[in-house]
Structure formats: structure tokens, C-alpha cells
Amino acid sequence: MKVNYGFQQHEKLIVNDADILYQIPVAEIEKIFAKGGLTTIQLSDTNEVSIVKSLTYFENELEDFGFVRINRNVIINCAHISNINFRSRELKLYNGEKITVSRRNLSKLRKAILLPPPPYQKTGKNDRSYKKSDRS
């Protein structure tokens, strides 16, 4: 199945930080991450924009454009995901960077990229037995 992120092409994220107004093409945003009180927007051309806004702000602004929060510190643009290993909860971006997805946000990521749940799920946290999924 192919997911079309072409709708991002003409959209811009407009962010005001102090005296600077940024217009950032949504399609060029690879990820947004928090570190040391700043939020950094990483672009596909390796440029970065650091501003004082919360990740929650960007999560709300960009959720309709194929962005999903994958852990406490990172929001990812699904259009820039190369592959996802659901067993190790690790995704790889096209630029080669690997990022761990939290257990809590794994199902959110799966929904964002339109994948059905796995046919079998573990029945307990430390249990090795499996049950058939409800969606089969």
C-alpha cells in the first residue's frame, strides 16, 4: 500500500518566535524534537530552526499533515520514514537516523501510516502467550 503525502507540498508552518517569523514548508520538516528547553525543527536539507515553543503546540498544529509524536521528545513526519521495525520499536528516516518509538505511541504511529494491527498480540506484559486480534 502506498500512502500519498503530496498534500504537504504547498503547506507552510508559520511560527513566530520573539522578533522572527518563520515560514517553513511542511514537506521539508523531517522531525521536531525537544532538547534543553528549546524545540528544534530539523529540515531535510540539514538546516535546523530552534525556537521556544512546546512540542504539544507542534503536535496540534501538524497532526493533520502526517506528523505523529513517537516519544516524549520527538514528533516525526511520516513522509520521511524509510522503515519501521515494530518488534524493536525503532524507525529509520531516509537520512539514516534511527529513533526509538515509545510503547504508548506505537499504535498511534501505526494508525498514522494506515497499517492494520498485527494479527496476534501478546496477552500480558511478560506473558509469552498470544491471542488472536479482534480485527481478524
From the N-terminal CA to the C-terminal CA, the straight-line distance is 18 Å
**Which segments are poorly predicted (pLDDT under 50) over 5 or more consecutive residues?**
127-136
How many structural domains? 1
What percent of residues adopt helix (DSSP H or I)?
10-25%
Report strand order across the widest sheet: 5-4-3-7-6
Largest sheet: 5 strands, antiparallel
Shape: globular
- The CATH homologous superfamily: LytTr DNA-binding domain
Structural class: mainly beta
Average pLDDT: 82
Please provide the count of β strands.
Answer: 12
Strand content: 35-45%
CATH fold-level assignment? OB fold (Dihydrolipoamide Acetyltransferase, E2P)
| N to C succession of SSEs | EEEEEHEEEEEHEE
The CATH architecture name reads Beta Barrel
Instruction: Assign the CATH class.
Output: Mainly Beta
Radius of gyration: 17 Å
* Number of H- or I-type helical stretches: 2
In short, what is this structure?
This protein is mainly beta.
Describe, in plain words, how this protein is organized in 3D.
The chain has 136 residues and is mainly beta. It has one domain (7-116): LytTr DNA-binding domain (OB fold (Dihydrolipoamide Acetyltransferase, E2P), Beta Barrel), CATH 2.40.50. The chain contains two helices and twelve strands; from the N terminus they run E-E-E-E-E-H-E-E-E-E-E-H-E-E. It has helices at residues 55-62, 103-112; strands at residues 12-17, 20-25, 29-35, 38-43, 48-51, 67-71, 74-77, 81-85, 90-93, 98-100, 120-122, 130-132. The strands form four sheets. Strands 5-4-3-7-6 form a five-stranded antiparallel beta sheet. Strands 8-9-10 form a three-stranded antiparallel beta sheet, with no helix packed on it. A two-stranded antiparallel ribbon has the order 1-2. A hairpin with a 2-residue loop joins strand 1 (12-17) and strand 2 (20-25). The longest helix is centred in the last third of the chain and has 10 residues, at 103-112. The two termini are 18 Å apart.
